[in-house]
Amino acid sequence: MELFTQLLITGITVGSIYSLVALGWTLIYKCSGVLNLAMGELTLIGAYVCLMFYQWGLPFPLAVFGTLLVGLALGLLTERLFLRPLIGEPVLTVIMVTVGLSFFFRGLVELVWGTDTMVFAPPIFPPEPIKLGTIVIGQAYVWSFVAALALLVIFVAFFRYTRWGLSMQATADDEMASLSLGVSADFVYALAWAIAFMSAGVGGTLLGNINGVNISVGYLGLLVLPAVVLGGLNSVPGAIAGGLIIGVLQNLAGGYLDGLTIAGLKIIPGGVKDIFPFAIMTVFLLFKPYGLFGWIRIERV
Amino acid sequence: MHLPCGTYHDRYGQDHAWWQTRFVWVRMIALFLLLYVGLPATGNFYLISVANIIGYTILSAMGVQLLIGFAGQVTLGHAAFVAVGAYASAIAMLQFHLPYLVSIALAALVAGLWSVLFGLPSARVKGFYLIMTTMAAQFITVDFIITQYVSQIGGRGHYFSLPPGTIALGPWVIDNDIEVYYLMVTLVILCLIFMANLMRTRVGRAWIAIRDNDIAAEVMGVNVFRYKLLAFLVAGVLGGIAGAFWISTLAFVSPEHFQWGWSLWLVGVILIGGVGSNYGTVFGSMFMVLVLEALKFALIPLTPVFPHLLEKFLYVKEAAFGLAIVLFLIYEPNGLAYRWWQIKNYIHLWPFSY
Question: So what's the ipTM on this one?
Answer without folding.
Answer: 0.83
